[in-house]
Amino acid sequence: MIVGGEAELALLLHIFPEGVEELDGAFAVYADEPPLGFDVIEATDVAEGWEDRWREFHHGTKVGRFWVGPPWEVRDSEAIVIDPGRAFGTGSHPTTRLTLELLQTLDPGSLLDVGCGSGVLSIAAAKLGFAPVVGVDLDDAAVEATTANARANGVTIEARLADALTDELPRVDVALANVALDVVERLLTRLPAERAVTSGYMDRDRPDVTGWTHLDRAAADGWAADVFARELS
After folding, report:
1. pLDDT over threshold 50, residue 5
2. Of 57, 74, 101, which residue is a domain's last?
3. What pTM, to 2 d.p., does this model score?
């Protein structure tokens, strides 16, 4: 079935782990039942082998010193190899790239990755010398994917199941939050970090928070990421 509108691919991958692909300006999602809350333009049966067609739509990308992509593609620079399964991306979304770009401008220290997903940002942080690196996510599958991908990339990451808006979080030098704008704004009010790199929202938006100073911004393809420093009390 084809879902119209500007639904964000990473969100669709979470909602429809059976598979998502972009077709003619819309997204086709694989599901047994019509997706509630979406405008269904067309519904069709799919041919055999659809379970693995998603691989055709995951490609590697270069971000600063890193190449980030799936294991079935050839890479030519320092690699972060991510096997996303069917539920998570390989790091090609603009918000992931922008967060990784800004992360490379910060001095290494302890790090928390909120909404770690497939572990792209956690793995990059570990390769950049951040330690310890902790990734948290609401999804068991994300914790499993981050753990597996960290092992495959030869880095050490502690991935755990947690709700960053309610659970206790570790005090760190840097926190990453590539999540929705409203979640970023709520998170920054309780985040025990000295620096924060946030993304997951459009270039026209900017987190509205107190207690933090805005330091830097990167934007691409209509999306944005920001660096904040905690204000001294």
Report:
1. no
2. 57
3. 0.77
